[in-house]
Design a protein that fits this description.
Helix content is 30%, strand content 16%. The chain is of the alpha/beta class and 336 residues long. The strands form 2 sheets. It has an 8-stranded parallel sheet, with helices on both faces. Strands 7-8 form a two-stranded antiparallel ribbon.
C-alpha cells in the first residue's frame, strides 16, 4: 500500500497518507443496494412507481451490519438514493422517500446507528443519475444517440441540498460514494467534492470511475476523487510486485502534472445482481475467495455488494456464503 519509495511524498491529495492508509487497512467492506429497485425489480428504476411500493415487512437494518461484522467487513456503504430517485431517509426536498412509503423507517438513521453498535464504519452512496427528479436534466434513457448526458444547475442544487441533509443529520460518515458523476460536469463534480469535504472533512470521497480494472483514472468522468473505483473487475497488475499502484499523475492544467495518492476499491456483487432478485444465488466460495485474495495481494479494498431482500433482511444463502468465505480466507491468510 504505502510501502514504495513514493510513499515518502506527501502528494497533492486532500487527505494525508496516514488517513488514506488507514482506510486501505480496512480492506473489506459491504456494499448494500436497497431501495425502490428492490421492489420494482428494475436496477435502473424509472422512478415512476409510487413511494408506497417500497414496503419491507421485516426490515432489520441491524441484521445487515451484524452480518457484515461477522464476515470480517470493517465498513459498509448504503445506497441512500439510487437511480430511481427514491430516498431511504425522510428528505425535506422531495416527497419521494420512506416517510411516504409502506415502511417509514429512516433507513439511513438505522444504518448509521447499527454501524456504531457493531463497530463498522458507515458510508453513504448517492446517484447523480435520477430518473424521478429531472429538473430538465437529460440522463439515462432520455439521452438521444450521440448526445452526452447532463444535469441542469437546478438538479445539481437539489443534489447538493440532499447531500447536506445526509452529511449533517447522522454524524460522522467514513465514505461518501457518488455514482454516475460524469453527468455533473467537471465544475459540478468540483463543487460536489468541495461540499462533501467541507461537511465531512475526514470522509474519503469516491467519484465512481466506472467499469474497469483501475489501470486508468478517467479524469473527464470522475475527477476530483479520493478513491479509484474498480467496478465489476479485478485490479490490474501495476507497479512494484504487481500491485495496483495508488500513485497517480494528474494534470489539472496542461503541463502541470502532480502526484496524487489515490487508493483503489473493487466493487462487485456476491451474486449476479446489485439489487436482490429471486434465485440470484451467491457465487461459489472459490470465486469469492479469489476476489478477496487478489484484492489483498494487489493492495486494493474489496467492497462486496450483499443486497437485502424485499422483506428487508439479508437472505441466509448470502449469510452462509460470507461465513464460509471468512473461514477460508483467515485460514489462508494466517501466518505460518
Amino acid at each position: 500500500m504505502g510501502s514504495t519509495p513514493d510513499s515518502r511524498q506527501r502528494g497533492e491529495q486532500r487527505l494525508s497518507l496516514m488517513a488514506l492508509e488507514a482506510w486501505e487497512s480496512l480492506q473489506f467492506g459491504m456494499f448494500i443496494h436497497f431501495g425502490m429497485s428492490t421492489f420494482d425489480g428494475d436496477e435502473l428504476s424509472q422512478g415512476d412507481k409510487p413511494a408506497a411500493l417500497y414496503a419491507p415487512d421485516r426490515l432489520e437494518v441491524d441484521q445487515w451490519i451484524a452480518v457484515a461484522r461477522d464476515a470480517g467487513m470493517k465498513y459498509a456503504v448504503l445506497t441512500a438514493k439510487h437511480a430511481a430517485g427514491y430516498c431511504l431517509w425522510p428528505s425535506g426536498h422531495t416527497d419521494y422517500h420512506v416517510g411516504n412509503s409502506g415502511n417509514r423507517t429512516d433507513v439511513v438513521e438505522a444504518f448509521v446507528k447499527a454501524c456504531a453498535k457493531h463497530q463498522v464504519r458507515p458510508g453513504l452512496y448517492y446517484c447523480s443519475w435520477d430518473n424521478h427528479h429531472r429538473f430538465g436534466s437529460v440522463v439515462g434513457p432520455d439521452v438521444p444517440p450521440g448526445t452526452q448526458p447532463f444535469t441542469t444547475a437546478a438538479y445539481r442544487d437539489f443534489q447538493a441540498a440532499q447531500i447536506e441533509e445526509l452529511l449533517t443529520r447522522y454524524g460522522p460518515i467514513a465514505e461518501v460514494w457518488i455514482d454516475i458523476p460524469t453527468v455533473l460536469g467537471h465544475e459540478g463534480r468540483r463543487r460536489q467534492y468541495q461540499q462533501i469535504a467541507a461537511l465531512q472533512p475526514e470522509a474519503v470521497i469516491m467519484m465512481n470511475n466506472g467499469i474497469g480494472d483501475g489501470a486508468r483514472l478517467n479524469y473527464d468522468h470522475s475527477w476530483p476523487t479520493d478513491l479509484l473505483a474498480i467496478e465489476r473487475n479485478l485490479p490490474a497488475r501495476m507497479g512494484k510486485h504487481g500491485a495496483c499502484t495508488p500513485w497517480r499523475t494528474i494534470a489539472e492544467r496542461k503541463g502541470q502534472e502532480k502526484p496524487y495518492y489515490i487508493p483503489g476499491e473493487v466493487c462487485d456483487t456476491i451474486g449476479g445482481e446489485w439489487f436482490a432478485i429471486n434465485d440470484d444465488r451467491p457465487r461459489g466460495v472459490l470465486e469469492l475467495l479469489g476476489m478477496r485474495l487478489i484484492c489483498a495481494e494487489r493492495g486494493v479494498n474489496l467492497l462486496l455488494n450483499v443486497p437485502p431482500d424485499r422483506c428487508g433482511r439479508i437472505a441466509q444463502p448470502y449469510v452462509e456464503a460470507l461465513q464460509t468465505l471468512r473461514q477460508h480466507y483467515e485460514r489462508l491468510a494466517r501466518p505460518t
